[in-house]
Design a protein that fits this description.
This protein has helices at about 15-25, 70-80, 105, 110-120, 140-155, 220-225, 240-245; strands spanning about 1-5, 30-35, 55, 65, 90-95, 125-130, 160-165, 180, 195, 205, 230-235. By secondary structure, the protein is α/β, with parallel strands linked by helices. It has a single domain (about 1-185, about 215-245), classed as Stationary-phase Survival Protein Sure Homolog, Chain: A, CATH 3.40.1210.10.
């Protein structure tokens, strides 16, 4: 199996290195990842500046390609030019921080996986809910990630399909409560901002939000992760509101008057 591995935390991120070490047991792994941290980059791509690349060797890890761009850029460029053959699977992660609920929309980790699905490839995004009391055991998380990826492949992941996996915050040696297939929580997340002043007296705002696994319905990714489960959520990039499309299907839409 040929696997393309990327992320949004940068090519030297501990989650990426740990996951690489696990995925090599599944096949040949090519790493193409951002040169620097691209957290919350969403699905942005680079159009007006060049995409600089460089070969990077991570000690006790791998030699890969660092891209001075965003996660979606990495996947596009890898598939078009940087890997010798089309990957059988694209994996993005392990992200440092959960990507559940509304974070799925902002996540560069998830965007990289969705970009792969755009290109007709099966893709999996992997994120780790951080224990703020730390330390976080990335090697252990990567083992659980690899086992979960193998289960997803065994269940059947088709070209163009994309999955997001979230791993609970666990102490070393602690096991997750299990694995759950769940839907994305769509409850709103309200950010908080601190008003500050620069040395010249100009106001600016700093996002001071700390994401928490808040109240939600029991069948969501947020609830399952909060309860210590590994979560599996199938995603899609078709943003069509099919219910509204059906509701309006018989409506007559008159031509717009010049008046």
């Amino acid at each position: 199996m040929n696997i393309l591995l990327t992320n949004d935390d940068g090519i030297s991120a501990p989650g990426l290195v740990a996951l690489y070490r696990e995925l090599v047991s599944m096949g040949e792994v090519s790493v193409v990842a951002p040169e620097s941290v691209q957290s919350a980059a969403g699905h942005g791509i680079t159009l007006n500046t060049p995409l600089l690349i460089s070969r990077v060797t991570i000690p006790d890890g791998f030699t890969g390609v660092a891209v001075d761009g965003r996660p979606a850029d990495c996947v596009k460029l890898a598939v078009a030019h940087l890997v010798p053959r089309p990957p059988d699977l694209v994996v993005s992660g392990i992200n440092s921080g959960a990507n559940v609920g509304i974070n799925v929309v902002y996540s560069g980790t998830v965007a990289a996986a969705i970009e792969a699905a755009f290109l007709g490839l099966p893709a999996i995004a992997v994120s780790l809910h951080l224990d703020r009391d730390g330390p976080n055991d990335y090697a252990q998380a990567a083992r659980y990630a690899r086992q979960t990826i193998q289960q997803i492949i065994a269940a059947g992941l088709l070209p163009g399909e994309v999955i997001t996996v979230n791993l609970p915050a666990l102490q070393s040696g602690q096991a997750p409560a299990g694995v759950k297939i769940v839907r994305q929580c769509t409850r709103p997340w309200i950010d908080s901002y601190e008003r500050r002043q620069d040395p010249r007296g100009r106001d600016y705002f700093w996002n001071s939000s700390i994401f928490t696994l808040g109240p939600t319905e029991d069948d969501t990714d947020v609830a399952a992760l909060r309860d210590g489960f590994i979560t599996i959520t199938p995603l899609q990039f078709d943003l069509t509101n099919h219910e509204l499309l059906r509701r309006w299907s018989g409506r007559k839409w008159p031509l717009i008057s010049k008046d």
